Give the backbone structure.
Amino acid sequence: MEDWRSYAHDFVEATPLRRLFHSRHAWLSVAATLTAAALVAVAAGWLLGEFGPLPVVVLAVVLGVGLWMLRNIEVAFWGVIGIIALLPFGSLPFKVGFTPTFLDLALLALLGLWLVPILLGRDPDWRVTPLDGPVFAFILLAVGAFVAGLSHGALTSYLIRHFAEILLSIALFYVVVNLVRDVERLERLLRAFLLAAGVAALLGIVLYFMPDALAIRLLSVLGRFGYPTGSGVLRYIRDDPELMQRATSTSVDPNALGSLLNIAILVAAPQLFASRPLFKRPVLWSLLAVLGLCLGLTVSRGAAAGVAGALLLLGIVRYRKWLVLLTIVLALVLLLPWTQGFVAHFIEGVRGEDLSTQMRFGEYKDALILIGRYPFLGVGFAGSPDIDTYIGVANVYLMIAEQMGLVGLGAFLLICAMLFYRFWRRRAAARALPRLEPLWYGLHAAVVGGLGAGIFDRYFFSLDFHHSVTLFWLLLALATAATEMVDSAPSVAGVRPVGSSRGNVET
């Protein structure tokens, strides 16, 4: 892709602004410059007087990052990744008709930076993948379910905004597969993701062991950016302060944090066997230890089960040493005195003895009733048409079926099935690419972990957890992009990749 500065230059050249700032009359250029400076000063003064210094600082940072994005579109990716991990619920401390979140701005910036060259006819080509059609069909089905659901639910600003965010997150798939075309960029993005997840995990651990009063005070600072404040920022099992505390970091919900750590652990795990890992192995082991410890402190059983299941499959399919390591870790978890609370909580869930699990069983039953009444296209996103049922279940598959029917669920499962079918077909080709293979396995293992955790939680398709939805579709897109790189690689060591497409994989 061409330097973004050329696009910006062409845009300015095509506007009357150039005539003002580059006029042959010196006085006109000076007047235009002074006017622009005065407008900026007035705007800054108004913001200072109306909202205080914080919005001005935030706005200056946003503008600075925006200019950096114009020079390097990868900065927009880093912004999306950093916000997902560290400030997932952060929003601007002032309104512009509504209150945009940091993630909204980052995604719109990334989408805009990708679309402008296409609209100007400067983009070299559009990468076509077998998943393009199913993803687009899923988007159309979501829009159809949304419109049909308005017949029995009110169209509110909340609904419009959050549904638009869902669509934006799904559309991220096309941005990623078209911009991530070489292993170098893939490495940089995954390195940024693991670092951001590591920082989030470290924050979660520090806040967990910190005195409660101090932790509450520090987390309440984020209230200026749309976060909850007060004692409610600390979470406990069954919301009982007498029971075990749960790590949240800056993710508000411990299970949402668990979903982030689930994916980060699985992306990082194959790097232990890489000939050229993303980090030096001592750093990698330390990172995995921090991620694993924080995952345990979230007491998120669904995320833990997703990680364990995906690591088991990873060991069976490719890295047999993982089976030995998993056995050791499992033995330590079962035997160490510090983990007995988590083990007891996990066993309660398996037996269906705790309140949380019993509530989930009730949600599953109600969801099946609703799906039975509206099996094809669901009830949409505005609410249930029946007073004896409701939308909301701790299971991503039942959630999709409730809102988009079995047709929508079928489209989602088709996307996942095609992803793993292509993965299975390309295992031999990937082995000839030692630099790419661990990244490729890690991304697909993370998808498995996310889908496994989705049996117990709905975060990857929830209007209230935009960052989790974005994370899942980012992950799906990166896995697809990595498979395209396997396809585009030349024949190595007698292994000929399946299919073909353009791109640069490894030298």
User: Anything to note?
Assistant: Residues 132-488 form one domain. The chain has 20 helices and two strands.
